[in-house]
Amino acid sequence: MIQYDEKIYFYLLIIIPVIVVLFLLLLVWKKRTQKKFANTDLLKRLTPNRSYNKGGIKLVVFILALALLIIGLVNPKIGTKLETVKREGVDIVFAVDVSKSMLAEDIAPNRLEKAKRLVSEIINQLASDRIGIIAYAGQAYPQLPITTDYGAAKMFLQSMNTDMLTSQGTAIDQAIELATTYYDDAEQTNRVLFIISDGEDHSEGSTIDAVEDAADEGIIIYTIGVGKEKGAPIPIKRNGILESLKKDSQGETVITKLNESVLVDIASEGDGQYIDGSNTDAAVEFIKEELLKMDKKEFEAKQFAEYKDQFQWFIGGALLLLFLDIFILDRKTSWLKKLNLFNEKRNE
């Protein structure tokens, strides 16, 4: 397991291609200037000991040293000891609506991105709870099983989009049914399901049945609404550029609206509450307080308990390369010249 102390220093790697470009431009300028001064044969006679290859070698050595120095600043750490630790928490599953209606931009930047931000902010408030993620549209798909790896959860969360499921629609009942399979601990006193959606449901008849079945298994269902009741069209974009708006079979522009009543009914039947997701901070704070009230279940989890700094190896390698760079001169080295490593023997 690897951790990084200061990931922001990775941005310094952008300097490397800039240096390469500047070096190539410098070579072009030098060649043009030399041609104005003298032809190639005359230059070779005037500078018989000048190496035409060591400039590139010095550049490679310098770039490698710079890259190692930057990685050293990032300070990668390697986990050296895996321990089983006791943790207390609640099992939480997030069911995120990824249907096309979630592309509506009545809430910035759009409903889906807002939903992902809400889930990410909730995860930031958790300490030792186990979490899972489900994506659903016309069908439900297990995105991430129950885990304590919050980093992996955020990675999977950010990869979610409206194209990941071919079956379109909004089948909340399937998401709830799939969520019931996530809770693998029969002794867990509190199981929580958060449904983040705009409330459009194409399976209303069976959704309440699914909610009741989940409630019988002790699952508390909270719903988070994203979107506006006045609605908005569904943009169809390619490479971030708006091409058209989604239309129905009659050629009319589809207006998708937040259906709070469906989400309120689901939360009510699921012994939870409906939460307005338009204000991220308020929604996250409310959820944090609700989770704190719940009884925690103790469970075991494996995690790396000790991490050792590795920056010294990279800094040491960088200093060694910079030291070697001092001895790489632009002129030919006499003993290397005899070996002709760089094919620099002049034709007599």
Automatic annotation (TrEMBL):
Domain VWFA: residue ranges: 91-270
InterPro entries listed in its UniProt record: Aerotolerance_reg_N, UPF0353/GerABKA_families, VWF_A, vWFA_dom_sf
Alphabetic keyword roster: Cell membrane, Membrane, Transmembrane, Transmembrane helix
Coiled-coil regions listed in the entry: none
Pfam families: BatA (PF07584), VWA_2 (PF13519)
Transmembrane region(s): 12-29, 55-74, 311-329
Keyword Translocase attached: no
Superkingdom classification of source: Bacteria
Record protein name field: Ca-activated chloride channel family protein
Organism: Maribacter dokdonensis
